[in-house]
Amino acid sequence: MLFFLLLHTFLVEFRNFLYPIFFGILFAYLLYPIAKVFDKLSVPRIPGILLTVLVGIVIVYGSILFIYSQLRFLLKDLPALENQAVKNIDAFFTQVESQFGTVSEAQQSNLKKSVSHLFQTSTDNLDFLLTATVQTVFTVFIMPVYVFFLLYYRNKYRTFILMILPEKGHEKTDQIIREISIVMKKYMGGVFIVVLILCFLNSLGLYIIGVKYWLLLGLIAAIFNFIPYFGTIIGFSFPLAMALLTGNGPGTAVGVLILFIIIQFTENNILTPNITGGQVRVNPFFIILGVLIGGIVWGIPGMFIVVPILATIRIICEKIESLKPWAFLIGNSGTEKYELTTNKLRKFFMKR
After folding, report:
1. Could you read off the pLDDT of 14-38 as tens digits, one per residue?
2. Residue 261 domain-assigned?
3. Which of 106, 134, 268, 279 could be cross-linked to 187 through a Cys-Cys bond (beta carbons 3.0 to 4.6 Å apart)?
4. What range does the domain containing 331 cover?
5. Residue 299 domain-assigned?
6. Which is nearest to 240 in space by CA: 267, 275, 213, 265?
7. How distant, in Å, are the alpha carbons of 34, 132, 325 from that of 125?
8. Are residues 55 and 131 in the same domain?
9. Are 241 and 312 within one domain?
10. Alpha-carbon torsion 28, 32, 38, 44, what sign?
11. 42-71 b/e with 16+ CB inside 10 Å = b?
C-alpha cells in the first residue's frame, strides 16, 4: 500500500517532467518507420533523424496551432452563437405550445438562464483552454529533443538493459524488448492512421449535416479517439452540443447522433480491427480502469498513454513465468467464445 502511495505521489509531483518523456517515447515509435526509410536510403543518421523529427513537429505543432486559431474564432463567435441558441429555444417552446399547450414563463426563463450560464462558462473555459494550449506548446517544446535522442540512441538502450541483467536472462529480455517494440510501432502507427481517417469522416459528416466549426469539431473528435471507449463519446459531445444549441432545428442533432453511430460502428468493426489488428491484447475492463486511473493521476495526457503502458505490462508479465497469471488477468485471452463479433451476429441473424 505504501509503495502505491509513494508511486502516486511521484507521478503527480513530477507529471510535467514525466509525461513529455512518455509522449516522446510513443512518438519515437510512431516516427521510427520514417527514420528507417532514411536509413535504407543511406542518409546519415543525424540528418535522417532531424528530418524525421521535423515531420513530427509539422504534424503535431501544426495541429496545435490550427486548434488554437480555431478556438480564438470560436471565442469571438460565442455571443452570436448564444443569440442563436436563445432563438432556437424560443422556436422550441413555440412548437411545444402548439402541440401540448402553454409552457410557463418560469420554465422558459430558467432554461434561457441555464443556456446563458452555459455560454458564460464556455467562454471562461475557452479562455483557460487557449492559455493551456499555449502552455502545452511550451511544455512539449522539449519533446522533439527527447524523440531525437530516443531515435539516435535506439540501439544503445537495448544494450544497456541487457548489460545490467544477468547473462542467463538475456534471451528472454531480448524477446520482451523486441515484442514491446513491435507492438508499440504497430499500435502507434495504426492508431495514427485511424485518427486521420476519422478526422476526414467526422469533418465530412459534420459539414454535410451543417454543423458550425465542422473542421475543428471533427479534428477534436478524432484526436479523442486515442482515449479508448470514453474518447469517442467525449469527442462527439462537442458537435452534439453545438448542433443542439445552434443548429437549424432538432434534425441537426439527430444527424450528429446518426453520424456518431455510423462512425463508431465503422471504427470498431472495420478500421481498428484491420489497421491496428488488436495489437495491445488487453481486456476492456483493465483498459477502462487504466483510463480512469490515468485521468486521476495525469489528467487527459494520462488517459492518452495508458493503453501502451498496459500493453507493455502485459508483455512483461507474459514472458516471466511467475507473472503469467497477471498476464492472463490483464489480457483478452480466455473469453474468446463469449466475444460479440460481426461473424457471430451474421450467423445469429442467418438462423432466424
Report:
1. 787 888 888 889 999 999 999 999 9
2. yes
3. 279
4. 280-352
5. yes
6. 213
7. 38, 10, 45
8. yes
9. no
10. positive
11. ebeeeebbbebbeebeeebeeeeeebeebb
Gap between the Cα atoms of 25 and 123, Å rounded: 35
CA–CA gap between residue 314 and residue 193 (Å, rounded): 24
- Torsion angle of alpha carbons 131, 137, 142, 147, nearest 10°? 140
Domain match, 259 and 284 both: no
SS3 of the chain: helix, strand, coil, percent, to 5: 90, 0, 10
Q: From CA 342, how far away is CA 323, in angstroms rounded?
A: 33
Q: The dihedral of CA 321, 325, 330, 335: what is its sign?
A: positive
Q: Are 195 and 211 in contact (CB under 8 A)?
A: no
Segment 311-333 shows an average pLDDT of: 89
> How confident is the model over 36-47, as pLDDT tens digits?
999 899 899 999
Q: Rounded to whole angstroms, how far apart are CA atoms 96 and 283?
A: 46
Q: Does 191 fall in a domain?
A: yes
- Say whether both 141 and 37 belong to one domain: yes
Residues in the chain: 352
**Contact (CB, 8 A) for 283 and 333:** no
Cell of 117: 450560464
162 within domain boundaries: no
Taking the CB of residue 230, how many other CB atoms lie within 10 A of it? 15
Q: Across the chain, which distance is largest between two alpha carbons, in Å? A: 83
Same domain, 42 and 105: yes
The residue type found at 344 is: K
Task: Tell me: do 36 and 143 sit in the same domain.
Answer: yes
